[in-house]
Design goal:
By secondary structure, this protein is of the alpha/beta class. It is about 40% helix and about 15% strand. Bound molecules: pyridoxal-5'-phosphate.
Length: about 400
């Protein structure tokens, strides 16, 4: 049997990621592959680091993309900072906090879980209490933007509390980077990881990370070797590190990095603050549409993430049938609920390149049609106008 080339259709990605990739990024990725130690490529790697420092708002020398998806950025933070026997406070308010626990335990550490309701922000008081009860804790970890529920936590305050108790911080910014205010240096974040496929408008598969000097001190002074050879920062730094000559560690994903470079150039051209403002404004427009049609947000207003809108599925509506109709009839992908939210919510992403007027109006019009055909209990014919009112205000 001859297998033919694969030609994917042009979908519109409004789920929890990957989100729509900018055509400029896709074009950049199709440019000629260079050797990974070619001086021109090494120069581009340096630019990627500079551009990432801007995106993270940091001067951290160790700011670079891990050659693997967000989960590998998460793992890079944990395997380097958690030594066997270390106690780590993990704040969990959704799926991704649970993965942090897995990481701590696989590093030989002890995870002290601090649970918050799914759909709510991490409660700073609970972190304070947990740190008071665990004087020997070394690290506090939390998710800034919980993509599984659409809740945003107050990273600045959580880091302040952790530092008051002499803990380093590990912050998951996979969905917040470029979508919501995030200031690594001003907020004194010690170790942070993100992903390229959410608000950076890039393809999946890379994980920008940044480590403060304080975090690197801990890595340099470990008593035991980092158990992952691939993610050991002591080795990775010789490849991605300073200006001196690069030692081969692994072959960088050359063309994927062209894509990240382009996406970061786009971010710089738009301006970081403008990108945050666009995500916010578009969220308000989508929200007006959802609320006009009668869909309810699951996260309280003050704790909502503009780039991930989680709404309850109306009574009696077949979740999978709606998402299939959106995909087949409108080429539109929205996200299903994850974990305990499965079957209860839809997660509608407005991330990066996908956070635009066309997508908002298409999504509202398509849902109006699909839910209407299924006789769902919604207000028909009002959502698009409600969103337009916000967009043109
Ligand atoms: C998507 C996501 C991840 C995982 O990233 P992958 O690229 O899928 O490995 C981790 N944390 C959060 C909050 C995410 O949204």
């Amino acid at each position: 049997m001859a297998i033919d080339s694969f030609y994917p259709p042009q979908r519109i990605l409004m789920g929890p990621g990957p989100s729509d990739v900018s055509p400029r990024v896709l074009a950049a990725m199709a440019r000629p592959t260079l050797g990974h130690l070619d001086p021109l490529f090494v120069g581009m790697m340096d630019e990627v680091k500079e551009l990432l420092k801007y995106a993270f708002q940091t001067k951290n020398e160790l700011t670079m993309p891990v050659s693997a998806p967000g989960s590998a950025g998460m793992e890079t933070c944990f395997v380097n900072l958690v030594e066997p026997g270390d106690k780590v406070i993990v704040c969990q308010n959704g799926v991704f906090g649970g993965r942090m626990k897995e990481n701590v335990e696989r590093c030989g550490g002890t995870a002290v879980m601090m649970q918050d309701d799914w759909g709510r922000m991490v409660d700073p008081q609970k972190l304070e209490d947990a740190l008071k009860a665990n004087h020997d804790a070394k690290i506090a970890a939390f998710v800034h933007a919980e993509t599984s529920t659409g809740a945003m936590s107050d990273a600045k305050t959580l880091v302040e509390i952790a530092h008051k108790h002499d803990c380093l911080t590990i912050v998951d910014a996979v969905t917040s980077l470029a979508g919501s205010p995030l200031k690594v240096d001003e907020w004194n974040i010690d170790a942070i990881y993100s992903g390229t496929q959410k608000c950076l408008s890039c393809t999946p598969g890379l994980s920008p990370v940044s480590f403060s000097e304080r975090a690197l001190d801990k890595v340099r002074n470990r008593k035991s070797k980092v158990q992952s050879w691939f993610m050991d920062l002591n080795l990775v730094m010789a490849y991605w590190g300073g200006s001196s000559k690069r030692a081969y560690h692994h072959t960088a994903p050359v063309n994927a990095l062209y894509g990240l470079h382009e996406s970061l150039v786009i971010l710089q051209q738009e301006g970081l603050e403008n990108s945050w403002a666009r995500h916010r404004k578009n969220h308000f427009a989508l929200r007006a549409g959802f609320e006009a049609m009668g869909l309810q947000f699951i996260v309280p207003e003050a704790e909502r993430l503009p780039q991930l809108n989680a709404v309850s599925i109306p009574e009696g509506v077949d979740d999978a049938a709606v998402r299939a109709a959106l995909l087949n009839d409108y080429q539109l992908e929205i996200g299903a609920g994850l974990g305990v939210m499965a079957g209860k919510v839809w997660r509608v992403g407005l991330m990066g390149h996908a956070s635009n007027t066309r997508n908002i109006l298409l999504c509202l019009g398509a849902l109006d049609d699909v839910l209407g055909r299924m006789n769902a209990p919604i207000q028909r014919g009002v959502a698009v106008a409600a969103a337009q009112k916000v967009l043109t205000a």
